[in-house]
Design a protein that fits this description.
The complex is a heterodimer of chains A (183) and B (188).
Chain A: H1 3-32, H2 39-69, H3 76-95, H4 101-127, E1 134-135, H5 157-182
Chain B: H1 2-29, H2 35-43, E1 47-50, H3 55-62, E2 73-75, H4 85-89, E3 94-95, E4 97-99, E5 104-107, E6 113-115, H5 128-131, E7 137-140, E8 147-150, E9 155-157, E10 160-163, E11 168-170, H6 175-182
Parallel strand pairs in B: 1-2
Antiparallel strand pairs in B: 1-4, 4-11, 5-10, 6-7, 7-8, 8-11, 9-10
Classes of the chains: A mainly alpha (183), B alpha+beta (188).
């Protein structure tokens, strides 16, 4: 693996941790400090559209970089997750200009379904550690237990995808809450 | 206000990139107590075949910490997970696989499960379906997490099973076991 890919994986892992911190921050404030005046919730309400668009666009760009530039074969579950994240780039791109409730709901549904697939993929990936050794790959067979990225002992591509989808979902949950309060 | 936010995001992204580049580089250059051991594995003719996507190989490398950069690692997988010609020629069938210049010595009080080469024979242990090789016989010792495949049968002497050069360890091996294969004393 080229050195720059190792560095890139590490940077993405740090970014994923940043996303997870943001998720925790929003969830903790939503659960324990729920208020329309909460500055954290207001910050993510105000800029949630940008964050969600940035996360979905990054997911699209990076997944294509791994498969089309580096040549890492995408397994079936990766392709299903792409099915849920790619349309969000378009949806969220539109919400930057037209903040339509329907688009937000669609984005939230896609994020939720994508999150379920990511959870299953993380489960499969961890199940791949069972057995004595990894089987060699054969032409046409791409195992979803493969860990192309493995940083900090838990961050893999499905964990990155899970964090991205969860972040978008949490942003929309917060948006719904603050919108109601402001009504 | 929007421009301030964009500046904030750009600075945050640049900070993460800088942090990643800096900590990643400093992590690989720091000395590790297994540096000499990893180098000794290389100089004494051990070979570690693996795939960059293989969880067992990642766990094996993690045992060495930053000393993994000195391991005699041979990448067996192309990006699309198909095996490289070097590893096909060496008859590598699973990852990680270790080979040693002087063969493999393994201490075991129990009797090993022996699997014939694929497709196997009726009545073999069920584990053979997972571990048997298409080329050679495979041995599984009860005390170890890996199997050994070898073109020749081992010799049993004083509780030590001796496999000739060409035998392969398939699966993760402990540092103590690897050190014993090359006669290296691990640091405290």
């Amino acid at each position: 693996m080229p050195a720059y890919v190792e560095t890139l994986n590490y940077i993405l892992a740090l970014g994923t941790i940043g996303t997870q911190v943001a998720i925790l921050l929003i969830v903790i404030n939503l659960v324990f400090n729920r208020s329309a005046n909460n500055s954290v919730l207001n910050f993510f309400y105000k800029y949630g559209f940008y964050f969600a668009f940035f996360v979905s666009l990054s997911s699209l760009a990076l997944s294509l970089f791994y498969s089309e530039v580096l040549g890492y074969a995408a397994c079936e579950l990766c392709i299903i997750q792409r099915f849920f994240i790619y349309p969000q780039v378009l949806l969220l791109g539109i919400t930057l200009f037209k903040k339509k409730k329907l688009l937000i709901t669609l984005s939230a549904v896609l994020a939720f379904l994508g999150m379920l697939v990511s959870i299953y993929h993380v489960y499969i990936e961890n199940g791949g550690s069972s057995g004595l050794a990894c089987a060699t790959g054969a032409v046409g067979i791409v195992t979803c237990a493969a860990r192309y990225v493995y940083e900090f002992g838990y961050i893999t591509i499905p964990v990155m995808a899970l964090s991205a989808q969860l972040f978008i979902l949490v942003i929309w949950s917060n948006h719904k809450y603050i919108s109601r309060k402001l009504r | 206000m929007k421009s301030k936010f964009i500046i904030f995001v750009v600075i945050a992204v640049l900070f993460v990139i800088a942090l990643g580049v800096f900590t990643n580089k400093s992590g690989t250059t720091a000395p590790n107590k297994y540096d000499d051991f990893a180098k000794a594995l290389t100089t004494r003719g051990a070979q570690f075949y693996g795939a960059f996507w293989c969880p067992h190989c990642q766990d094996q490398k993690a045992l060495f910490g930053s000393a993994k950069q000195y391991l005699p690692y041979i990448e067996c997988s192309k990006p699309d997970q198909t095996p490289t010609q070097v590893c096909l020629d060496k008859k590598i069938e699973s990852y990680p696989t270790w080979m040693f210049a002087n063969g493999i010595n393994i201490s075991s009080a129990g009797s090993p499960t022996v699997c014939t080469a694929k497709p196997g024979v009726p009545g073999e242990a069920s584990v053979c379906a997972q571990i048997s090789s298409q080329y050679y016989k495979t041995w599984l010792f009860p005390e170890y997490k890996f199997s050994i495949k070898s073109p020749t049968d081992p010799i049993m002497k004083d509780g030590i099973w001796q496999f000739e050069s060409g035998a392969q360890i398939q699966g993760e091996a402990s540092l103590e076991f690897l050190a014993a294969q090359i006669g290296f004393t691990l640091p405290e």
